[in-house]
Design a protein that fits this description.
The protein is built from 10 helices and 6 strands; from the N terminus they run βααααβαβααβαβαβα. By secondary structure, the chain is of the alpha/beta class.
């Protein structure tokens, strides 16, 4: 079945930004609240959504703050980093523009807040998406297949018409369980899952150089 709809995660899938998020959510968050940095917080990062980690941070640091207040601080700090320090992953701009010219539907599916995405896509040169879907506006984390089921219903597409580019192992697994054509994007934060990702993803990449050619080769081997 033809792939009409291309889903892209954002952080560490089309921009190299996760290291900046780690710094903001741990090293910079403590001093913001008048506390000394505690490296142990990093031990509870993995696998949590932003609201879950915000709550964990509040409890860990003993803060008198709400999850919304913590997330708002993160987003304001990250907006500056996106605009001044974060760079798109090699080849992604060319790939996105090519898909746009082909008439494909481009969907940004992210855990990052929609307001922040809207503020930084244009400065990054990535203001090409037809739809932005987030864990907040869908009402489910991407590690839950419900995120993708609901997204497909909203867009009026079938799972078999979708191709997903994503770096999160949990998100890839949930999409794969629905029959989505998955492309895993490898980086230093998920390289430990590379072998597992290769077991079910149609393709695993580090960047988007020659991505069209790579996809065509996969299509030839497994057209469905």
């Amino acid at each position: 079945m033809e792939k009409t709809t291309y889903f892209f995660d954002f952080d560490n899938t089309i921009v190299d930004s996760l290291e900046h998020w780690h710094k903001v959510m741990t090293e910079e968050a403590f001093p913001h609240y008048g506390l000394e940095v505690d490296e142990k917080l990093k031990d509870i990062w993995e696998g949590k959504t932003n609201p879950e980690f915000a709550q964990a941070f509040i409890e860990f640091a003993g803060l008198d703050a709400t999850c919304e207040e913590v997330i708002d601080f993160w987003c304001k700090a990250m907006e500056e980093k996106y605009k001044s320090e974060v760079k798109p992953i090699e080849g992604v701009e060319k790939f996105l523009l090519s898909l746009k010219k082909q008439g494909k539907t481009l969907v940004l599916a992210s855990a990052t807040e929609e307001s922040l995405l809207n503020a930084i896509l244009k400065p990054l040169g990535l203001d090409v998406f037809d739809k932005i879907l987030t864990e907040r506006n869908i009402g489910a984390p991407k590690r839950d297949p419900h995120f993708y089921k609901t997204s497909f219903e909203k867009l009026g597409v079938k799972a078999q018409e979708v191709i997903l580019f994503e770096d999160s192992f949990g998100s890839l697994k949930s999409a794969n369980s629905l029959g989505v054509f998955c492309v895993g994007v490898i980086n230093k934060f998920n390289v430990a899952h590379k072998e597992e990702m290769e077991s079910f993803c149609k393709l695993v990449i580090e960047n988007y150089v020659n991505i069209q050619e790579k996809l065509e080769n996969v299509y030839k081997k497994a057209p469905n």
